[in-house]
Amino acid sequence: MSDGMFRTVSGLRRGYxxxxxxxxxxxxxxVYEQGPATAISGADVRQVAFDLVRGGYVTAAVDAALxxxxxxxxxxxxxxxxxxxGQEAWMAHLGAQARTLYGRLGxxxxxxxxxxxxxxxxxxxxxxxxxxxxxxxxxxTGAPLTAGEVRATTFRRRNGRNGYAEGPVDAFVxxxxxxxxxxx
Length: 184
Prior knowledge:
Elements: E1 14-16, H1 18-34, H2 42-47, E2 52-54, H3 59-85, H4 87-105, E3 121-123, H5 125-141, H6 147-151, E4 157-159, E5 164-165, H7 166-183
Antiparallel strand pairs: 1-2, 3-4, 3-5
């Protein structure tokens, strides 16, 4: 990744702030090439947020690059973990994460996550439960599912107590992505 590698949108549209994006990717490249493997994690990459500005970088291109960067840091972490502790320890680590996910998946549709507090918006339970069904199929039968597919899943908004709170769902999805990336 090099500074200015992304196209910008027209001055009338909004995109990610080029200075923030270039700074983050420059730092990530430096850490990946020279820093300790744990200085940036896949989760750190997934949680980065850039301001939107007129004439900024095309968001889809930056998001795709972040997905690749996250996968690279996860692969690097996995390789270091396996080198230090062995493949069996890595599988036990992934197994523990998967069991945590699976505990949530065992709950009935509509009851997997708490509702949002007060008047905060939430996610449509049917959409979240559909992703949960796909994860159950992955864990139970080995049905094909990739981290990219989970990452690309979108949930409709649902206002009021009939939705799922966004924070717990987002954390769950992030953990599912980590497990799937750890296996890929």
